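Hey, resending since the last one bounced:
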Amino acid sequence: MAAASVLAAVLGAGPAAAGADTGAVGAFGLNDLRSDGILLRNASYDGEADLDAARDAGVRLYRARLRLDCLGPDLDFAKPSATCHGLSYDDLVRELAARDMALLPILINFGAGPGGAYVPVPPTPDGAGGTPTRERFAAFAAAAARRYGPGGTFWATCGCVPRPVRAWEVWNEQNNGWWWGGSASAEDYAGVFRDVRAALRGVDPAARAVVGGVVWDRNGQSSFVEPDAFVAALAAGNANAFDAIAIHPYTDARGASPEQLAGAAAAFTDLMAASLRRHTGPGPDGAPRQQIWITEMGWSDTDAAPDTIAQGLAQFVARLDGGLRAADNVGPVLWYMLRDSGYKGGRDDQLGLRLTLPTGADGGPKPAWDVFAAAAQAH
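The structure tokens again:
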């Protein structure tokens, strides 16, 4: 079965009816540094043009944060956010749908951390220390599904062909302590995930809950849960506890050849596939029963020449097409990120497929952009 057909089946896309969403979710998608804020009207960059470029490249899936802290007590997604610079999730979903693109939301929450830093703040059972309760976070997920899921209230007002959200990523890199209140806990995350999945399914019985992207790099954090131990804890007592798992197979590109870049990313994908087979069991064809979604991958041109990165991406795509996607049950692959940051402060600012000028304006494509677009359009 072709990759696009596999993904359409996974995300629940079926024969198009009048007024229904059309088109399969592509095998390749994009993140951006601005994520949910790509359309902020007070910004120096041109979010609509960025989304046009993504559409023209063949992108059909865009990943962005849906933040509880950006909503008021009434969880009204239709209102521009009073706490997040006027952010409008309705605008984002509408502009994506107008370009035949679907949203992959990251359900997450931020707040003040030690020293006033703005950090991810996960829900807790009792709301200790001003955190949202698990019940509140699950209600937020349900409200999002009622707004943007199949038959959601938003689609009657969109003025577009519906592209409802069918898959929801729960948090991001939660096996790294920084992303989980300073103390990573697979058991704690599993409790949150269970409640969110139940809330989503209560609105959309076919909703797919995706485990937030796990990482292998501690990134200097003392609190860290190894991915295999994380999967073991999630699957303890229930091999069907999640619908898919996301990974972020970042690798050190310094001094690496294109073959080494592609091979290292494939090796991390193989590690997760082996973990899934071990803890949730293989499917009839020997591949993991749950899909692996690569919701972030990329290499910075602070570490490798742009041409090397382009060739590394091309070789990774060739590995996917040559059997890796089928053997490891790989779902969508999303590059991080669409464009560089205008501020060139470090490695993470130059992971883009396109350049960014100091003003924030688009500076044109890097070599990897054409490789990525060819892959997206072919799948």
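DSSP finds nine helices and twelve strands in the chain.

Sorry for the duplicate.
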